[in-house]
Amino acid sequence: MTAAAAANARAQIARRNKVRQFVTPEGVDLELRIASAGLRLGALVIDVCLIQLILVGFTLLMIWVFGASESSIAISIWMLGAFLLRTFWFIGFELGQRAATPGKRLVGIRVVARDGGRLTADAVVARNLIRELEIFLPLTFMGFSAAEDTASWWTMLAGFVWSLTLSLFLLFNRDRMRMGDLIAGTWVVMAERVRLDRDIAASAEAVAGALTFSDAELAVYGIFELQELERVIRAGDARTMREVADTIRAKIGRPVAEEDDVFLLSYYRQLKARLERKLLFGKRREDKYASD
Amino acid sequence: MIGSAPPIAIETPAFSTGRFRAEREADWIAFDALLTRLEKKGAKALSSDELLQLPLLYRATLSSLSIARATSLDKALLEHLEALSIRGYFLIYGVRQSRLDRLKRFFLHDWPAAVRSVWKETVVIALILLLGTLTSWSLVSHNPEWYYNFVPEELAGGRDPRATAEFLRGTIGHGKAAGEQEGALHMFATYLFTHNSQVSIMSFALGFAFGVPTMMLEYYQGISLGAMLAVFTSKGLGVEFGGWLFIHGTTELFAAALSGAAGLRIGAAVVFPGARARLQAAADAGRTAGKVMVGVIIMLLVAGLLEGFGRQLVADTLLRYAIGTLMLLFWLGYYYLPRRGGA
Asked: Is residue A1 assigned to a domain?
């Protein structure tokens, strides 16, 4: 039990470590969450794929337009286009209203200024030009080691590892800042869109002959368990609901007498009412291990 | 009457999170809809009534968030309000200017101001470039063998101490070989532009390592320039080579120096943050450097055009010098002439 309690506490601390205070002029803390390295990588991969796709399309277009004439204008337009695409894809999108490239939008993250001010164009430019270094320096070293005659293989390996420490800089700090973020004074934070789901505690289809639970039966769980229960009910997967319902029944010592969803919903409502009432009196019970 | 009232009061307490949500939900939905339109189509898509509504709905949402955090345990609700407030905050306090205004401000004010503010670093980098040039020039003039250490074979394209004066004259656009490349001028210009931009982006990006790699890169650029210069001077083509270089070189080398200066600014800020925190100093320097770098890329575009078209089409040495000097004067005036309203 204590091991589980410790694990739970650790998970909460980990979650809190990702949250940064961000107070608006109205005095409300928005509690921004730092985006994880995995999400950042995912966004980058999506963006690189999109750039490559567009580049292929652009190349085909150039071949189609200029193919017959073999004009060198086509080649110079292609070179210019490729350069602009690669350099300004990130800058252009991050200057927009949502401060995120298509990849970032898909995974639900965005760039913000660390000081809470607005995200300026120069910051966006700085953070993205540094990207050239972070991605292409390791690639260059790999290219050199392929050439092999300029220096020994080991020197190149050392250079590659050295340049990787630059590229992986974001793994070594708490705020998950790239070199570019550090220099531009920016953060990448979570910015998903969350749909407003229905209010399951107040929905009208009140259960006929609703179950009532005694205070002792409700006292076994805290807020963490309540919100997990909410997640299960919203997901509505029958197998999971059966498992959860059985666990709760065993815990509070009730026989299996009613449908799982009816049981869970009434238990959820009454537990939520109880915990919210306590919350109004200033008592916040984080999880079942905390004292009631 | 009196007897029946209390039980009802107990059944429906004055505050419940369900009622809270029912009362405020319409505001959140309206705010969400406005934000979505704002994100998709910009401020022009909203009528003036809706624009006035926007801050009201924003504040209503923030206040709902505060209340919900203190009273509600409905995770879906809390997360929705948080996400909505974050979106709203960044849209309302985010960009306050149109893109056109920002562009105008960048060219009229921000760009020259940023370049002006890195003048010390520019001088340092220019001196390093000069030092590199002088070093290799004096070495190669005394002993041509040094040339092969400085300029790689494939880059030289035959322009080395063994070449005849006639061949060298041809490579800088006088005599027989001049007309060869004309068909592919624009290709050449584009190649030069993209290549040089990449090099200067590198030189900027390497700056954060205390500026040392930046200075090395700039020194190396000076070295190959000086070596080439020494070869041409020894064959009595110094003036012509100068013109060949000058027409675009004033713009290109200026841009190279600025990109180095931008890198050096970041390196210097990391090493000597002064009274600010190191991170803050790096962020401040990075923003200035970012502006300079956009300018550098534009300058390199101009240099690429001058190099690709101007140099190949204008063969007269005097005219080449004139264009080069004009460009230099233009950049110097644009950056360093004092002007009004420079806040």
From this structure: no
Total domains in the fold of chain B? 2
For A130, which residue in chain B has the nearest alpha carbon? B205
The answer to whether residue B329 is domain-embedded is: yes
Q: How far apart are CA A181 and CA A191, in angstroms?
A: 17
Convert the pLDDT of each residue in B251-262 to its tens digit.
Answer: 888 988 898 898
B134 and B78 share a domain? no
Contacts of A282 in chain B (CB under 8 A): none
- Minimal C-alpha gap between B237 and chain A (Å): 32
Does B290 contact A32 at a Cβ distance shorter than 8 Å?
A: no
Residues from chain B contacting residue A79 (CB–CB below 8 Å): 187, 190-191, 194
Quick: pLDDT tens for A169-215.
888 888 888 888 888 889 899 988 888 888 777 654 555 556 788 88
Mean pLDDT of A82-98: 84
Q: What is the dihedral of CA A206, A207, A212, A215, to 10 degrees?
A: -50
Looking at the structure of chain A, the number of domains it has is: 2
**Which residue did the predictor score with more confidence, A273 or B12?**
A273
Nearest to B290 among A32, A97, A126 (CB): A126
- Domain match, A75 and A134 both: yes
Those of residues 46-75 in A touching chain B at CB distance below 8 A are 72-73, 75
Residues of A in contact with B283 (CB under 8 A): 114-115, 123, 182-185
CA of A260, closest CA in chain B: separation in Å? 21
The CA angle B153-B154-B157, to the nearest 5 degrees, is 90
Measured between CA atoms, the residue of chain A closest to residue B42 is: A97
Rg, Å, chain A Cα set: 27
Does residue B122 belong to any structural domain of this protein?
yes
Its domain, for residue B238, covers 100-336
Shortest Cα distance, chain B CAs vs residue A2, angstroms: 25
For residue A169, tell me if it sits in a domain. yes
ipTM of the complex: 0.83
Please tell me which of the candidates B87, B189, B206 has its beta carbon nearest to residue A191. Answer: B87
Residue B3 lies in a domain: no
**Size of the A and B interface in Cβ pairs below 8 Å:** 188
Encoded tokens for A104: 């970032």
Of the three residues A190, A205, A227, the one that is the final residue of a domain is A190
Q: Are B35 and B87 in contact (CB under 8 A)?
A: yes
Are A144 and A231 within one domain? no
Amino acid present at A198: R
- Within 8 A of B91 by CB-CB distance, chain A residues are 97
Same domain, B61 and B184: no
Cα separations in angstroms, B25 against A31, A233, B32: 22, 22, 11
Residues in chain A with CB shorter than 8 Å from the CB of B66 are 28
Task: Let me know if A267 is exposed, middle or buried by CB neighbors in 10 A (0-12, 13-18, 19+).
Answer: buried
Q: Which pLDDT score, from 0 to 100, does residue B306 have?
A: 81
* One domain for residues A153 and A276: no
Residue B1 lies in a domain: no
Q: Is the dihedral of CA B113, B117, B118, B120 positive or negative?
A: positive
Predicted local confidence at residue B31, as pLDDT: 93
Same domain, B259 and B140: yes
